[in-house]
Structure formats: C-alpha cells, structure tokens
TrEMBL record:
Pfam families: ThiC_Rad_SAM. NCBIfam families: PRK09284.1, PRK13352.1, thiC. One of its GO terms (molecular function) is 4 iron, 4 sulfur cluster binding. Binds 1 [4Fe-4S] cluster per subunit. The cluster is coordinated with 3 cysteines and an exchangeable S-adenosyl-L-methionine. This is Phosphomethylpyrimidine synthase. It comes from Haloarcula salinisoli. The gene is thiC.
Length: 472
C-alpha cells in the first residue's frame, strides 16, 4: 500500500513513526494528516537510503534544493558533490533537474546516496530521447515515468494541468510560458493538435505511482515569470485543473502536493497560497520563491526568500530555494549553500511567526549565548556554523578571542552588551532574571528537527563526504 492507502486504512507505517519522531508529534496525528491528503511522505519503496520526512502545513516548513547538470557543465562526481552540499546545509528534499548527459547514472547515484527524498521532472528525459519535442509519444512518457519510479525517485513533477484551452490565455503576457516543462508541452500540443498527454494519461501515471508509492508534485507549467503576469487567467485556469487532478490522484490512492509560483508581488502572495489551499482541498503547497521583485539578477535568493517567508506564513508547506544564479547560470556548490541559507531563514522565520511548537527556542538559545559572550555556543547554534566561525575568525582568530567580551564590530570600548552587563554588575541597573544556569536548551524543545540546530544532520546520510573538504 501507499502511505496514503495505509493511512486511510488506519495503519501507522514505519515511515509515519519516524516522521512523528522527527516532528516531535504523535504517529496518529501524522497518519490523520496523510489520510486527509493534508500532508505527504515522499518515500519510494525502492529508496533504501531514505530517512522519511513529511511535507504539510501542520509540520515544520520544509526546503527543497534543485541540483542537476546541463549540456554545458557538471558530471556525475559534480552532481554528487552538489547533493552532499545540499544535504549538509539542510535541504529537506533534493530535485535532480539534470538535462545533460548520463541522466540514468546521475539519477541512480542520487537515489543511492541521498537520505532525503529525490524529485525529478520526467518530461526532461523524454525530450532527450527524441529529435524534436513533438516526437514524444504517450508510450514514451509512460516508459520514462515507470523507469524513474523503478530507480527509486520519491516524487515527480508532472505538468498535467497545462491544457490546450489554456494556451491562448498566455498570449498577452510579458514573459509568456517560463516553465521548461510547461513550454515543452505547449509546443507539443501546438504541433500535434492534441491535448496534453500527461493530462490524458493521468490515471495511467497513477497506476505507476501506486506500485512504487511515488508522490505527485503537480507542476505549475503556466506559473508567472514576472510580476506583471502574476494571478492572470492562465495561471488560475491551470490551478483549477490541478485541483481536479489532486482529487483524481487521491481517488487512486496516490499522494499529492501542488507546485506554485514563481514571481508574485508581495501583497498578493498570501492570497495566492490561500487560493491554492481552497482549490486543491488543502493539499500541501510547494512554492518556488515567490520572487517579489524582478530587478535583482544575482540576488534572487534574497528577492525570493522574502516572498517565501510570506508564503510559508500563509500556509505553504515546502519552499523551493532560489540561488543567486537564478536566471543567470547553473548553480555551483557555493550557490547551493547561499540559496539554502536564505530559504532556511525564510522557513524558520515563518515557523516562528506561526507559533510552531518550540521553534522560537532556537532563537532564544542563540540570543542567550550571544549575551553571555559564549562564542563557541553561538557557532554551534548558528544556521551555518562554519560560516559564522569563519567570519568571526577573519579579524579575531586566536583561541583567546573565544573568551572575549567583544567582537571586532564594536571593539572593547563600545560593545553594548559588555557595557550593559557591567552596569548591571555595578548595581546601576536591575539584573536580568535569566542567568547562565537557566539558558534555553533548543535540543530539548518540542520543535521539529528542522527547527533545532544544527542543520544538515539527516539520519542515515550516505552521501560521499569529501565534497566539502577533508575536515568536514
């Protein structure tokens, strides 16, 4: 049975037990959320190295990292290094978007080594196997999807919501169809004069997914690629179809999450999340960004993390990171690191704002370490401990400075926390009640694993360890 079928039958699976442990909640609550379609546990039965996790608005906000090669760059070793970097810096899932060479070898290696769910976009491989996109057949698509399911892929982006009748609605856009999958299928429909094959064969795809317990990630092939196109007829027409397909997948016992935009003005982000939740009956929403401004190539990990925070606060369950290379090039290891940091901040900030149980304990623990000038504890609690220590040590590298009551930003004489502490010790100000013996222990909080430091410590990780240097 799939996780969804088991949950509906009242069965608590081993994966649900593990998820409950990681989320610090009850296995029965996990089962109820999965049974109602409000959460998914992407866990292909053949992904042996997987440490199960859950995606749903009632759980810690998750972050996905996209990796993958292209014809221009990256090989198998390079992709495994990206995978290691993504897991090390806290990715909850990883999507392999490879479009270059050795697709099967890269995909199989990612599944073999990844403790987190692996996602793919099968239409990319289908395009690689024909001379022209219009040559793709229904049989080829199903063959590719079945093969990737056998290889252990946990979830697949299926752009089944792009219909022939939707294409004219994109004519007045500033940036047309920006989804790779969406544009490929639009071209296929235009040249063949036929309906989207992923739509017409959707129940056949469900049959494959049931056999391996692959989760649908229903792709937003008509997502807006600019602020001007956000919330237009094309986007919402596709969303209505995704709601229909969500219910069809559930009827067939298949888990579903739904993908979302894209580029959206900040004041419209919450409205878009709420609309998806209504149209898709609460299926988990998985959003790319959204980018809240179009003016910052090279900094789109920032423009999108702003929108991602708003989306998660409104109920999005998983955020797909954007790196500084977005729109400009294929991300490398440092770009993956920066993108994940931005999105980990967005996810955690939203969990704190939403009052997620125990999430604030991490913030409190770090604040207390900062006030106590406990530099080593600050580093250990930091989202990215290596970077925090590196920045501190650039100006004050010696071990003696790990005991210092100042940093190089203010120096000895102007450190506000030192001045404050000295004033309290001299009796000029009332002592702060919380002493060093009452410090918050973030590890003992009720927070989900994603809301407790340090990140990147997924159980069962078997990713090759040399990617970040011999000392890590």
């Amino acid at each position: 049975m799939t996780q969804l079928q088991a949950a509906r039958n009242g069965t608590v699976t081993e994966a649900m037990e593990r998820v409950a442990e990681r989320e610090r909640t009850s296995a029965e609550f996990v089962r109820e959320q999965v049974a109602d379609g409000q959460a998914v546990i992407p866990a292909n039965v053949d992904h042996d190295s997987l440490d199960p996790m859950i995606i749903g608005r009632e759980f810690g906000t998750k972050v996905n990292a996209n990796i993958g090669n292209s014809e221009e760059t990256s090989d198998l070793e390079g992709e495994l290094e990206k995978l290691h970097t993504a897991v090390h810096y806290g990715a909850d899932t990883v999507m392999d978007l490879s479009t270059g060479s050795d697709l099967d070898a890269i995909r199989e290696a990612n599944v073999e080594h990844s403790p987190v769910p692996i996602g793919t976009v099968p239409i990319y491989e289908a395009v690689k196997r024909v001379d022209e996109p219009a040559d793709i057949t229904h049989e080829l698509l199903l063959d590719v999807i079945a093969k990737q399911a056998r290889q252990g892929v946990d979830y697949m982006t299926i752009h089944a919501g792009v219909r022939m009748e939707h294409l004219p609605l994109t004519d007045g856009r500033k940036t047309g169809i920006v989804s790779r999958g969406g544009s490929i299928l639009a071209q296929w429909m235009e040249e063949n004069g036929m309906e989207n094959p992923l739509y017409t064969k959707f129940e056949a795809i469900c049959d494959i997914f049931v056999d391996y317990d692959v989760t649908f990630s229903l792709g937003d092939g008509l997502r807006p690629g600019s602020l001007a196109d956000a919330g237009d007829e094309a986007q919402y027409a596709e969303l209505d179809t995704l709601g229909e397909l969500t219910r069809t997948a559930w009827d067939n016992g298949v888990q579903v999450m739904v993908e979302g935009p894209g580029h959206v003005p900040m004041d419209e982000v919450a409205e878009q999340v709420e609309r998806q939740q209504r149209v898709c009956d609460g299926a988990p929403f998985y959003v790319l960004g959204p980018l809240v401004t179009d003016i910052a190539p090279g900094y789109d990990h920032i423009t999108s993390a702003i929108g991602a925070t708003e989306a998660a606060r409104a109920g999005a369950a998983m955020l797909c990171y954007v790196t500084p290379k977005e729109h400009l090039g294929l991300p490398e290891q440092e770009d993956v690191r920066d993108g994940l940091a931005a999105y980990r901040i967005a996810a955690h900030s939203a969990d704190v704002a939403n009052g997620r149980d125990g999430a604030r304990a991490w913030d409190d623990a770090l604040s207390e370490a900062r006030y106590a000038f406990d530099w080593r504890e600050q580093f250990d609690l930091a989202l990215d401990p290596e970077r925090a220590k590196s920045y501190h040590d650039q100006t004050l590298p010696g071990d003696n400075y790990k005991e210092a009551r100042f940093c190089s930003m203010c120096g000895v004489d102007f450190c506000s926390m030192r001045i404050d502490q000295d004033a309290r010790e001299d009796g000029e100000m009332t002592d702060i009640e919380t002493g060093s013996d009452e410090r918050t222990d973030a590890g003992d909080s009720a927070a989900a694993e994603v809301n407790r430091p340090p990140v990147g410590t997924h159980g069962g990780a078997s990713v090759p360890s040399g990617a970040l240097g011999d000392d890590e």
